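worker-3 :: picked M2 family metallopeptidase
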Amino acid sequence: MKSFKLTSAALIVAAAIATTGCEQNTSTTTAAPVKATYTVADVNKFLTATAEELDQLINEGSKVEWIYQNFITDDTAALSAAAAQEYSEAGVRFALQAAKFDNVEVSPEQRRKLNILKQALVLPAPQDSAKSAELAKIAADLGGMYGKGTYTNAKGEKQSLGQLSAVMAESRDYSELLEAWQGWRTISPEMKPLFVREVELANEGAQGLGYPDLGAMWRSNYDMPADEFANELDRLWEQVKPLYDALHCHVRAELGEHYGEDKVPQDEAIPAHLLGNMWAQSWGNVYDLVAPENADPGYSVTDQLIKHEYSEIDMVKGAENFFTSLGFEELPETFWERSLFTKPEDRDVVCHASAWNLDSQDDIRIKMCIQKTGEEFSTIHHELGHNFYQRAYKDQSVFFQNSANDGFHEAIGDTIALSVTPAYLKEIGLIDTIPDESKDIGLLMKMALEKIAFIPFGLLVDQWRWKVFNGEITPENYNTAWWELREKYQGVKAPIARSATDFDPGSKYHVPGNVPYSRYFLAHILQFEFHKSLCEVAGNEGSINRCSIYNNKEAGAKLNQVLEMGASQTWQEAHKVLTGTEQMDASAVLDYFAPLKVWLDEKNQDRQCGF
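worker-3 :: tokens ->
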């Protein structure tokens, strides 16, 4: 909510009220009338007024949303919805007005602000009140279908997504996994006709803002031509693909040994229900089946937290110490007074970890129901990465109080988490000795199953949507094209025959929820680039996977230089400050996992790889 980018919830409402009561000409405005009608003075007036309104809307809306997520009642839900509606109305109005200045000669800074306003919408409404209302209802209905989705299993038990996901993570029974996988996908076929109409209406809305289709509008949000951005993602994927292929080969072989090669053929894609995750997007839950021998590092961060009697607050203080060691100021006292650290016993709250800035200045907070585990300790470092980013760009214009692109915010948090290494844990007194490098293979395998396994999925979700938006994939081919992309990029296949009436993309929240997905792909590349660059600044001479920038002021200063920029410059400029180049490069991913790649290649020597 604190970021200007409209949240998916707000965007759903935005479609409903985009043009209610406004008579708009649905034809595209030509260049000549724009030049004749609008001047730089008009742009300045618009941006000044919009900045004031935005600042008020964001700050008030953030507080309302904070209250709702920390005190879930019917009343707070109603207040949250009302605030989202007000914010969304304004967002649509801002985008339409900004588009009218497309041909006015303005400064680069003014053009950047106008583009941010135009591109903030994820689901633009047509400039027709009836169609706008229809789009809003469809979006709300799709979200409701997903949120209410359940499956009643063969035993007559009604299972939610959370319960089905637990089966996917924990079960090793082929048939039980198949039932859970298939069961969740019974919720999505009825979404398909609504999604088809939603695409038609959102494309019309995007065209009203001057874009060929919605996909082109989404891709235009990256400081480069839309088609070049798509090519850039493919280039990055080709860099990291050999590592993914090696991981895929090993995982398939081990799954074949466990389940039998009749169920996991060694020359085909992996059945999607065997990878420990409902969407086979990350594979960490099958670590026990694919783990290297003798790779136990000899310690458990969870056990060490208990041994050293860390409280939840101690865990956050420890993470804060990481940032102060880099030269950042301590968190304000209000952070400790106003954050949510543990789950209250007397009320319902949203426990999903998140970082907040409620006043565009120093009222930064986290909201977590902290568990005393090593995973949560790393997550806290990640969330504080968001907080320190938010505070660093507080002096920017409200238009620029955001990350350089939507992948940067997640990447910064993940970059910090990569420094939670054995050496760091020893330095802060959580472990006594640093394991020998031979133990790194297990740690790298765990991380690869989460990070590397995710990368092709992070790419293909929007690859599919972009082709849907531009008409290359037609409704009768939605499901076929989805699985073609799953096999092409992931080497993962549907475990049973799927038909044209199925709508398996709808089983992933971000599709019915209209959340762009390329940001997650970018974050998985950028975090390793940033980590490598900061380690070089810190003078690291060892393996990059063992590097922690803890206690290095030079690395902290370089990091802060990028954070302070916010969205005021292109992401290429921000990237150059940190890495020395304007072009993203996935070779840092390969460097990080180099020891694991050597190990995988040795294991795969006599295996049949590829899919």
